């Protein structure tokens, strides 16, 4: 019978290393804060290099046996893990909302989304095929086989504390790799709960190791993973600046990296678009998690002929969004993750207004709700000299830019060093083909605002990183290809 855990059971405060729950080597701890209230939820281990090294040692010891398990045996464990995650959807959703601040309905949705990656890669792990290469010389047989790359270091962000780590751990385990991981300092509790369920599902000791560390200790806490040649891959979701740092510091051992980095997503609305559908698509893509996702539209370009109508309809919808605590079932927008996030949003809005933007709705902090709340905002008359044009706001702010021609829109959309996601709305099938090919992004939503799926490759181009997560392509980043050449057969 499946063991059921309560919310209190799932709030863990220690590191998971070699199957044991351990305090940091030096005993240090740091507080995890509820962004809605500012209260401390728990104090967790504040790890350092010694803890990271211990995790690497455990993963190295566990690797040979895990690598040699049959794919179907690994898949069976992942299937059990998936079932446990789904069985605990409600309490995991509550935990996500508690430490991250997204409304409870979104927290539940993230649990289902993260679980989908676990079951997807359980299935994909059963189908890791190689190739027989057609003979080029008599008496020789050539083939290519795929093998687990080795120890994987997974470093994840705070905005999707379950889904991001699930879609890194699941393919690694399915491929036969062992894992060392560090969740974001703002939201470590969900990751630790997920690890407990993995243990319960039968993941052997040392195969999955998680440590937590404060902002003050930061990436330096896991420097061991960058320098240790036993760690063969780093998978990271976060800022471009940190991604570049990881690439530089791990170069000495030539690790394989998957980097899902910053975005500055454009959202284009052409004058032949279904305006109501475009408004709905923008609401879905922009205000998920209060605008705190890497694929949220950051710049909305609307063609002149429909600009006024689109602006009015959007402002009406955004102004009606309900802001409140994550625990309130009626809330559609919860608190931002911390004070720094709210300060950045306010700075972007103030800069835009000072440079001529007009507030159609919102535009202010909401101190009556709490310190970390900001009103859903629509700004008209945005221009490319505003901070929000070139910096990712990461909050519930929609700046509206006016454009005249398709060429102007594409030029503006691509005028960024980033290239993660892009969206556009048009009912002209010829334009659909042209624009989808011209947009410089790893992901393009065409008349669609909800683009994420475990079956689709997720990742960017340019300074939004490289590598793909999800889909059949996502497993390849955890495998290496070995060429076998056998001679003397005649």
UniProtKB/TrEMBL annotation:
Residues in the signal sequence: none
Aldehyde dehydrogenase domain sequence ranges: 21-483
InterPro entries tied to this protein: Ald_DH/histidinol_DH (IPR016161), Ald_DH_C (IPR016163), Ald_DH_CS_CYS (IPR016160), Ald_DH_CS_GLU (IPR029510), Ald_DH_N (IPR016162), Aldehyde_DH_dom (IPR015590), Aldehyde_DH_Superfamily (IPR050740)
MF-aspect GO terms: succinate-semialdehyde dehydrogenase (NAD+) activity
CDD domains recorded: ALDH_F5_SSADH_GabD
Pfam families reported for this sequence: Aldedh
Source superkingdom: Bacteria
UniProt keyword Oxidoreductase, yes or no: yes
Protein name according to UniProt: Succinate-semialdehyde dehydrogenase (NAD(P)(+))
Residue numbers annotated as active site: 260
Gene3D superfamilies reported in the protein's UniProt record: Aldehyde Dehydrogenase, Chain A, domain 1 (3.40.605.10), Aldehyde Dehydrogenase, Chain A, domain 2 (3.40.309.10)
Annotated family: Belongs to the aldehyde dehydrogenase family.
Keywords: Oxidoreductase
4Fe-4S recorded as keyword: no
């Amino acid at each position: 019978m499946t063991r059921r855990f309560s919310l209190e059971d799932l709030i863990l405060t220690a590191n998971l290393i070699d199957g044991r729950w351990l305090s940091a080597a030096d005993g240090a701890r740091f507080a995890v804060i509820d962004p809605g209230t500012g209260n401390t939820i728990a104090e967790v281990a504040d790890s350092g290099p010694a803890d990271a090294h211990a995790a690497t040692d455990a993963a190295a010891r566990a690797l040979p046996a895990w690598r040699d398990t049959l794919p179907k045996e690994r898949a069976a464990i992942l299937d059990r893990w998936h079932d446990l995650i789904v069985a605990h959807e409600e309490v995991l959703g509550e935990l996500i909302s508690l430490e991250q601040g997204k409304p409870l309905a979104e927290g539940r949705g993230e649990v289902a989304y993260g679980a989908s990656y676990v079951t997807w890669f359980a299935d994909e792990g059963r189908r890791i095929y190689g190739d027989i290469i057609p003979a080029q010389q008599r008496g020789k047989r050539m083939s290519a086989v795929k093998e687990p790359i080795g120890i994987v270091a997974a470093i994840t962000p705070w905005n999707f504390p379950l889904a991001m780590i699930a879609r890194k751990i699941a393919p690694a385990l399915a491929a036969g790799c062992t894992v060392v991981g560090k969740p974001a300092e703002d939201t470590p509790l969900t990751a630790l709960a997920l690890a407990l369920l993995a243990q319960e599902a039968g993941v052997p000791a040392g195969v999955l190791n998680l440590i937590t560390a404060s902002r003050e200790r930061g990436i330096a806490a896991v420097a061991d993973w960058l320098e240790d040649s036993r760690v063969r891959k780093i998978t990271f979701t976060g800022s471009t600046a940190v991604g570049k740092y990881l690439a530089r510091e791990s170069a000495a051992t030539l690790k394989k990296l998957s980097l899902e980095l910053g975005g500055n997503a454009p959202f284009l609305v052409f004058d032949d678009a279904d305006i109501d559908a475009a408004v709905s698509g923008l609401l879905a893509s922009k205000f998920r998690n209060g605008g705190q996702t890497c694929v949220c539209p950051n710049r909305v370009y609307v063609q002149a002929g429909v600009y006024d109508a689109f602006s009015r309809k959007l402002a009406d919808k955004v102004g009606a969004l309900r802001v409140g605590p994550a625990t309130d079932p009626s809330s559609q927008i919860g608190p931002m993750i911390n004070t720094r996030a709210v300060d950045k949003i306010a700075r972007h809005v103030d800069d835009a207004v000072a440079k001529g933007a007009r507030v159609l709705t919102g535009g202010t902090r909401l101190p009556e709700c709490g310190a970390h709340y900001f009103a859903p905002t629509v700004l008209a008359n945005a221009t490319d000299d505003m901070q929000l044009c070139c910096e990712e706001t990461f909050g519930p702010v929609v700046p509206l830019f006016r454009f005249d021609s398709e060429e102007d829109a594409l030029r503006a959309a691509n005028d960024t060093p980033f290239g993660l996601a892009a969206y556009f709305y048009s009912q002209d099938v010829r334009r659909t083909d042209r624009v989808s090919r011209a947009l410089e992004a790893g992901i393009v939503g065409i008349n669609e605002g909800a683009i994420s799926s475990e079956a689709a490759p997720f990742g960017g181009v340019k300074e939004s990183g490289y590598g793909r997560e999800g889909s059949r392509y996502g497993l390849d980043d955890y495998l290496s290809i070995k060429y076998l050449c056998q001679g003397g057969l005649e």
